[in-house]
Design brief:
mainly alpha
């Protein structure tokens, strides 16, 4: 029972920094003083610095307004009048098909 408790404690202590770093907003990590021999906001011992935060995974660009280039629609992709108009075609109601010839 003691081994199980000890193993659980070791796991929790090992994963705690990872969870704390994942929940903090960007730029809010620990600050280290510039230069050498300084203190960390008066809370550390002179001549020591705080450890730098662990590197995180690079994030993907947040350009959500960009759309991927659309392939030329084929007549089998167009199933209604509105899509046909957007593609620049002529809708035939009798055959329910779009004519994309220009």
């Amino acid at each position: 029972m003691k081994k199980l408790l000890l193993a659980g404690l070791v796991i929790v202590m090992g994963l705690a920094p990872a969870f704390a770093a994942a929940q903090s907003p960007p730029g809010s990590g620990p600050r280290t003083p510039s230069g050498t021999g300084g203190t960390d906001s008066g809370t550390g011992t002179p001549g020591t610095t705080s450890p730098s935060p662990a590197p995180s995974m690079p994030s993907a660009p947040l350009d959500r307004g960009a759309t991927p280039p659309a392939a030329s629609p084929s007549t089998s992709d167009i199933t209604n009048n509105a899509d046909c108009d957007r593609a620049g075609g002529k809708w035939s109601a009798s055959t329910m098909k779009c004519d994309l010839t220009k």
